[in-house]
Amino acid sequence: MAEANMKLYLDISMKITEIFNSYLPLEAIHIYSIDEAWLKLNGSRLKYGDPLMLAEKIRKEIWSKYGLPCSMGIGPNMFMAKVAMDNEGKEIGLCHWDYSDIPEKLWPLKLSDCWGIGSKTEKKLNKIGVYRVGELAHLPLEYLEKNFGILGNQLYYHAWGIDYSEVEGHFDDQKKAVGRGITLYRDYNILEEIKTVVFNLAEEISKRVRQNNLKGKTVSLSLRYSKCEDKKGFSRQLTLEKRTVMTDDIYQAAVIILNKHYQGEKVRKISLYLTKFTENDYQQLNLFENNLKKVKINQLRDQLACKMGKDVLYYARNLEKGNIKARIENTIGGHHK
Fold this sequence. Notes:
Blueprint: H1 6-23, E1 29-33, E2 36-39, H2 45-48, H3 51-66, E3 72-74, H4 78-92, E4 94-96, H5 102-106, H6 119-127, H7 133-137, H8 141-148, H9 150-159, E5 177-188, H10 191-211, E6 214-225, E7 233-244, H11 247-261, E8 267-275, E9 278-279, H12 291-308, H13 325-330, E10 331-332, E11 335-336
Parallel strand pairs: 3-4
Antiparallel strand pairs: 1-2, 5-8, 6-7, 6-8, 6-9, 10-11
Helix pairs in contact: 1-3, 8-9, 10-11
GO molecular function, one term: DNA-directed DNA polymerase activity
Family: Belongs to the DNA polymerase type-Y family.
Pfam families: IMS (PF00817), IMS_C (PF11799), IMS_HHH (PF11798)
């Protein structure tokens, strides 16, 4: 068995995006996930030939530089390209679907093979006798909108290969939330152990917020319960009186949420987020408390950790039973760095 190397995965993903950018402007590249993207090929014909030629050129470059095979689907819109790639491109490497291919290629697909239709929606459609995309296409639009709301409108048009979505282009990374979630190795149902994990997460978030020169105001806590529990969990948020970068502020807000909503269930995943940011140079002073001293202490801890290692100075709470400090610091996306 070979353990995943998430850092390498991220690095190669960025290098492949650079290959895309060598052929197309950032405005024509929509990153969908760490290993998937849409490329808008309109306007590339004069320089690189038709879309199939350019797609094949990119595939060959990815293979020659990194030894990685990839699959591609070309279509008249984002939906058609995605479904083509999922259902044919993954088998033959590169395919091209057009509107004329809808009856032969799109309509015979099972609902589960059609991007945008989740398991819950599939079950609802199965109950009314719809199992294939073609059957979905021939339901009245009014019926789908009445029974599925705005999703019904999308289902109808997608079933006919119509998608008005636009490639959004380069993502401007203006952080709207800083957070971290962790799936626990075992079920936690001792409150103090859960609080220790929340503290570990609060410490990681406050460090990342300081690195980005931000202050946040709203703390969100989510708990996902074990499969043996009847309830799935909860997600709640609390807005502070003033914005903060402090571990203790984030932790105390999360504890208030925890004490109010947690009732002793077995917990398997905990997520914590800080949102509603402003730049860190904004200071709201308190006549009765000197927060500047606390901020300077945290900045000093960050500097020491950067210079001498993560364990040079840490809170005693990180020694409590149930702590996950080491896992947080040494994993990306649940895998070792």
